[in-house]
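Supplementary Methods S3. Input chains for the assembly prediction are listed below.
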Amino acid sequence: MPDALQNPYQALPQRAYWRPAVADVGALGLTELWTPKFRILPKDRIVTAGSCFAQHIGRALAARGYDWVNVEPAPPFLSAEDARRFNYGIFSFRTGNIYTPRMLRQWLELAFETRDLPDEVWQQEGRFFDPLRPVIEPDGFASEAELRAARSTTLDAIRWAITGADVFVFTLGLTESWSHAETGLEYVLCPGTVPGCAFDPEKHVFRNSGFRPLLREMQAAIKLMRAKNPSLKILLTVSPVPLTATASAKHVLVATTYSKSVLRALAGQLEAEVKGVDYFPSYEIITHPVFRGMFYGPNMRSVAPQGVDCVMQHFFADQARVFGPVKARHRRKAAVPAATDPEDVTCEEELLGAFST
Amino acid sequence: MLSRPETLCIFGDSHIGSVRRALDAGLEGLDGFEVEFWGAAGPLFRQIDIRQGVVRPIGKEAEEVVLRVNGKGRATLAPGDFDTYLFYGARLRIAEFMLPYLHHLRDPRQAVSSAVMQAAARQFLASCRAVRIARSFAASGSTRVFFAPAPLMTDGMTGQGALKSPLKDYPRATEATAADRTRVWQMFAQLLADDGITLIAQPDETVVNGVFTSADFAIEGAEASGDAGHKSPEFAALMLRAFVAAARRDGCKKTND
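Predicted structure tokens for the full assembly:
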């Protein structure tokens, strides 16, 4: 008969102990950082949204042949540079960054029509700006009708994305936000910091949300998504990118720690409580002291590509460890162009016929 | 005012064949112009390039065709060689742009802003070598430059051409109105005008089903050959009429200036 356990730590795997799991292996030798709840396969339709770090995840998944869904792709002939400038292909739909749980809920409610479209439209020098995403078009829209049509397209894309997705990856970014005092409309950026709207202290109110209200917002957002797509799996991450600025009256470093701590706790709570919700620790991989800030740029804010690579290596390695390797999915080859242009077949004849005399 | 006839070079790909046929048939005159053609068809047109401001065929085969088309021994083109250039067809396939963007203008679920459409149009033009040549000629200040893009595909013959698959992706282009098309044409006209080039848009009376050229203007035998791209001399005559009107307007403007 085996010896009875003398304490509960005895049977724990090595990853539960700091010395073998961290101190002995060092930052680049870490393994088993994540024990995923559910398998993510290349064939799964993956939707990404959230803070700016989410765009790296979408791109990395697509590069590995995973089915990252781009519901609102750039229209033809737009250069890659222009597509980026107009915020195409950054997230699965063209919302721009969604920093807070409340902003996520707001977009979902607008998309699924449980909230009325806001009347508020910003205007400056004859150009129109969407308060929900004021920098989506760098120079604003030509008219209010054009703004509303573009927003309607994005809301439609959200509906398609959420109802058709297998996995929704959401990166939590901020606890701080600005909203309209009367309508409650939450802005993605503080009015006055972007074109289209002057800051008005009477109208524009600051909020630095705590754990409980954020939890309620996320629960409501998840409930809404699951009402439309009951089998939707949700993978949460926390952006490792520090705040650019804080309006909390605290030092920005202290405010960053508060914001990220609350969001990290929120992700942990949801992972623990809600079925089909998981947390992937990209935040720890970039920010933890073990990594000594090696993945940050000189400004200690931007995340270097090596950091994203490291994050994604852990992602794929832990998926494979828990669920087994996945077969490499060959991306469908683009149709092989015809050896000759269809028009070319007849055009020599056409030209030379006309000039034969 | 010029005391001699204005020299005009009609420069392009296989589409200039219909222009030649229209002139030969007397469907439209180019009174006051002394006309030369210059160009080559499809694959050989791609062997025409501009170097140090001079356009020349790269390769023997292309040169032979260019000389045959020109008929006057002119192997190269420089901006000052002619008073006026009309780029005709010249691989600027406007249908490839019209189809998706007319669809976007019609489909509220796929709206694009005018700024996005303009950025795409700018890129579309930049990707066309003949547009780059036209820009270079116009920038020289020594000639007038007009550009008539390749016409929209012929109605009913899309199954044979390059537009088969895109039509599946952009079905609502067929609902486009004259106002939609005018909006796109005006955008191109402005972009080219910024470079000193006058656009000759396809006359709207030749357009059917939103984004196609009426089968009335199909090239002879198109049904049998499946040629959706080339058009009849009658179509070219309409284009020439539009060019002459634009050239006159431009001449008046210059005189008034």
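Chain B touches chain A through 48 residues (CB under 8 Å). Chain B has a mean pLDDT of 92.
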